[in-house]
Design brief:
Number of strands: 0
Structural class: mainly alpha
Length: 157
């Protein structure tokens, strides 16, 4: 029996060492990617300040909130939402935006507390939204208030 046939008796050759290094590097890149994604999309108070990334994150948040408010206003104009639910939805989006950008818990703050904090520019809009939400005889124009809310979000610094 020739010696060259003995290699078929022992089984397959083991993996090359380079494949183990490729697998380890891929795993490290994947873990780093998900960790960076988690950190950069976390709410404002927990995100480290990185100038370029923070500005990009803020712009992304602003675009999403403006789109959400615009969608709510369109649903109100089409008659899918009444004035109360539309104003509640816009108020919720605006308060979540304020919380995400400033770190203040605007979702749980009273209007007087908002007026006494750094969120003063949003106080009048939120007051009108509360009036439209809870006052049946309110004359607040939801379309106009939603346009002002979108403008506030776009220009927030």
């Amino acid at each position: 029996m020739p010696d060259d046939l003995l290699r078929f008796v022992t089984g397959p050759q083991p993996y090359a060492q380079a494949w183990w290094w490729v697998a380890a590097a891929s795993l490290i890149v994947l873990i780093t990617w998900y960790a960076a994604l988690f950190v950069l999309t976390a709410p404002g108070a927990r995100v480290p300040h990185v100038p370029v990334l923070s500005a990009a994150r803020d712009q992304l948040v602003k675009r999403r909130v403006v789109h959400a408010i615009r969608t709510i206003a369109l649903r109100h104009r089409r008659g899918e939402l009444g004035a109360g639910p539309a104003s509640a939805a816009i108020s919720g989006e605006l308060r979540r935006f304020l919380h995400r950008i400033t770190g203040l818990r605007a979702e749980y703050m009273q209007l007087s507390a908002i007026a006494d904090s750094e969120l003063v520019p949003a106080a009048t809009i939120l007051a009108e939204l509360v009036d439209a939400q809870f006052n049946i005889a309110s004359t607040v124009d939801i379309a106009e208030v939603s346009d002002r809310a979108q403008e506030l979000v776009r220009t927030w610094t």
